[in-house]
Amino acid sequence: MVHITTGISVFCNQERSQMQNKEKALAILKSKLFAIALAQNVQQVDEIQPRLIKSLSNKLIREYILHPYTKVKDLRTNVETTVATEVLDGKIDLFIKAYLQQQNHTTLVNKEVLDNFK
Q1: Is the dihedral of CA 28, 33, 8, 56 positive or negative?
Q2: Residue in 39, 57, 56 with CA at minimum distance from that of residue 48
Q3: How far apart are CA 82 and CA 6, in angstroms?
Q4: Whole-angstrom Cα distance, residue 100 to residue 94?
Q5: Strand pairing partners for 9?
Q6: What is the CA radius of gyration of the chain?
Q7: Residues 6 or more apart from 16 whose CB is under 8 A from it?
Q8: Strands, E assignment, the chain
Q9: 68-77 pLDDT tens trace
Q10: Please, are residues 35 and 49 in contact by the beta-carbon 8 Å criterion?
Q11: DSSP letter, residue 47
């Protein structure tokens, strides 16, 4: 399935039925268009600007090394931990806190820049 105006294409072959695959592909396409609309702060799909679309999944968030030693590194914040088994079990509070602190710091810096600009 291809959305002509944005050029986004989706292929699905999980089901045996062609109609079910088509329905699933349409649902995935709708979710991608919705995510892009949110990222571009637009209300209608027609307002999406195709040249501003960035890939939704080409940037890695974490790097897992499990052999010969264990390490998990968050590539957004450069936070590392050696307890990979806990991270794989879902205990990612360390990474969430670091990301939120980084976002808070970024907004504070931007506010300072705006205050100094006046």
Answers
A1: negative
A2: 39
A3: 42
A4: 10
A5: 2
A6: 20
A7: none
A8: 2-3, 8-9, 62-65, 71-74, 80-81
A9: 889 999 998 9
A10: no
A11: G
Cis peptide before 50 (omega within 30 of 0): no
- The neighbouring-strand residues paired with 63 are 73
Q: In the block, which residue shows the tokens 């944005």? A: 6
Residue type, 93: D
Pairwise CA distance, residues 22 & 16, whole Å: 11
Q: How far apart are CA 32 and CA 27, in angstroms?
A: 9
- pLDDT tens, 19-50? 999 999 999 988 888 888 887 788 887 788 87
Instruction: Express each pLDDT in 103-113 by its tens digit.
Output: 887 666 555 55
Establish whether the linkage from the previous residue to 68 is cis, with ω within 30° of 0. Answer: yes
* CB within 8 Å of 7: residues ≥ 6 apart: 50
